[in-house]
Design goal:
Layout: H1 2-12, E1 26-30, E2 33-39, H2 45-55, H3 64-71, E3 77-84, E4 87-96, E5 100-108, H4 117-131, E6 136-142, H5 146-154, E7 158-167, E8 172-180
Length: about 190
């Protein structure tokens, strides 16, 4: 009963579950490119939509409204944009709670792919999850996106289960993947007959 009360208390009093979402912009060099990394804001949405069209063959899986909604969740979310001069090169987004960081979105412009920018952003978010004392980082990836799955596996993510029809626009299944940052035990269920 105490465990249930604690979970309900966390649900009704989310301020007690705060995770530090402070961020300072910085400049880094990846693959010989000088890149500026900063927190995404509404002013970046037009560029985000253009980048999505480039990555997803003219489609925008996330609408303007989706980005606006996510970017407002500054208490538990962090969305980063990466620019090379005035070109949006990549972005990544994640939601945090005291136990888990969930990568919600990541994209790298086709023009800048294979330069380790996606790997850098994933490692940055994983390190952020460690600093906020998360136990696990999770994400979903299209079941047929072998390139992304290979990247995530190289970072230590393991496949857990399939989410049927997860991507509603294409009716595609998603593979759920997790990276445990702390030792964990899989709970075994007892079945009675």
């Amino acid at each position: 009963m105490l465990k249930k009360f604690k979970l309900l208390n966390q649900f009704f009093h989310p301020e007690e579950n705060k995770v530090d979402m402070s961020f300072s912009p910085f400049i880094t060099t990846i693959g010989g490119l000088t890149l500026q990394v900063m927190q995404a804001g509404d002013e970046n949405i037009p560029d985000l939509l253009v980048l999505e069209r480039q990555v997803y063959s003219g489609h925008t899986p996330w609408s303007k409204f989706s980005f606006e909604t996510e970017l407002r969740k500054r208490k538990n979310s962090l969305y980063l944009v990466v620019y090379h001069a005035s070109d949006l090169v990549a972005f990544i987004g994640a939601r945090f709670n005291p136990r888990e960081a969930h990568i919600t979105n990541i994209a790298v412009s086709p023009k800048y792919q294979n330069k380790h920018i996606g790997t850098y952003l994933m490692q940055w978010m994983i390190n952020r999850a460690r600093k906020t004392n998360c136990e696990v980082v999770s994400l979903e990836v299209k079941i047929d996106n072998n390139i992304a799955q290979k990247l995530y596996s190289s970072l230590g993510f393991k496949s857990t289960f399939i989410r049927k029809d997860y991507y509603k626009d294409t009716h595609t299944d998603a593979l759920n993947m997790v990276l445990w940052l702390k030792p964990h035990r899989v709970k075994k269920r007892k079945f009675t007959f």
